[in-house]
Amino acid sequence: MLSLKSKKSSSVLPKIMTVFGVLLFCSGLYLLTLVGAPVIMPYVMSSSIDPAKLESPKQNDNRIIIPKIGVNISYGEGEKSLNNGAWWRYPERGNPEKGGNFILAAHRFEIQPTPQATWEKSPFYRIEQLSIGDEVIVDYNGKRYGYKIDERKDVKPDQIEIEAASQTPKLTLYSCTLGGAKDGRIVLIAKPLGEVTIKNNPQPTS
Is the dihedral of CA 29, 34, 39, 40 positive or negative? Predict the structure, then answer.
């Protein structure tokens, strides 16, 4: 009897190890999917936005749209705004209507329980793909404004001058590098085009 029990136990162990191995592999594969979601999702969904197909701006729905990298998110005051889009930093220092330094920051990469959620929480993942001359659209208080990127730079975490008040109207976009907040930030500066109407590309209103 002892011999039979021993054989039975030894036959069960490989099965347990196999199941454990499969679960471990699947867990690793799922984790890899979460990490790669911001890269994969643009190929599954539309990777860019056609400005001509945008809905008209709404009074209580301030948004930033970056057609080239498929970004269309809300922005607002306070750090909690990062949960749904971008954080409007220091509103008193600038906005599309009054000028100044209009500052928006958003997550570069924020892992979540599902690939879809990870992608949605990482709106600025592809920010490094933006170049000088690329256009940015901002909805503010029911009006639509256009910007054109004219400067791009990498800064250290302690270079807070990017958020300084400015007499020159501009839009400052930034996010952490993929190395994290302690590694540095990617910063894009865009000059205003004023209030725009959308056809095939942002055009200043007459």
Answer: positive
pLDDT average, residue stretch 7-11: 58
Question: CA angle, corner 101, sides to 130 and 135, nearest 5?
Answer: 25
Summarize pLDDT for 95-150 with one digit per residue, the tens: 999 999 999 999 998 877 776 677 788 899 999 999 999 999 999 999 999 999 99
The answer to whether residue 87 sits within a structural domain is: yes
Whether 76 is covered by a domain: the verdict is yes
- Note the pLDDT of residue 5: 54
Predicted local confidence at residue 44, as pLDDT? 45
| Mean pLDDT of the chain, nearest integer | 83
Give the integer Cα–Cα distance in Å for 203 and 74.
22
CATH of the domain at 131: 2.40.260.10
Number of domains in the chain: 1
Distance from C-alpha of 94 to C-alpha of 70, rounded to nearest angstrom: 25
User: Using alpha carbons only, how large is the chain's radius of gyration in Å?
Assistant: 23
Q: Are 123 and 42 in contact (CB under 8 A)?
A: no
Give SS3 for 14.
Answer: helix
**Domain, as residue range, for 175:** 51-204
89 in any annotated domain: yes
Q: Does residue 34 sit within a domain?
A: no
